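#lab-general

N.A. 3:47 PM
ok so I finally got the sequence cleaned up, no stray characters, all 184 residues accounted for. can someone with queue access submit it? mine expired

B.Y. 3:52 PM
send it over

N.A. 3:53 PM
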Amino acid sequence: MIEEHVGEFVSLVFMAFALGMDAFSVSLGMGMQLIRLKRIAYIGIVIGVFHMIMPFIGIMLGKAISGQIGDVTVFIGSLLLIVIGTQMFFSAFNHEAKKIIQPTGIGLILFAISVSLDSFSVGLSLGMSGVKTFIALLLFGGASMVLTWAGMILGKKVHGFLGVYSEMLGGAILCVFGLLLLFN
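B.Y. 4:20 PM
back already:
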């Protein structure tokens, strides 16, 4: 019983890290702008909040769907994680120049939504599998907030080297958890 809870917690920690890697990679580029530390702190908090709101909506919707269609939900949830992870992995190879959104006002909201959309889909699949909602949301929000801060601060020193590799790592982690959910 305890092993199951520890295993679920460890899985959620890795999943939170994988979801936060998208925010980390985008924050690297944004960190290359001249942004004060106070602003970086605020941006990280906003990203963390959105990484809690989006999966919450997904988890609630996933729980509602799982009650309707039963055993198929674990299969659908695992496939969703695999698809999201694959898309995240291969999007790292898209070398087109991305426009950097200014991290103020509506630009910050759009930035927060764009990096937390994948967490909605992950929340949907987690809701279907019956995960502990509160713990998942805290981990997702906390990891994305810290990774956003780290990305923006590192972005001042690193010029794009880690961005592609962090998205690839995050995508690979999501794929592995999708496969684990599928075959367990």
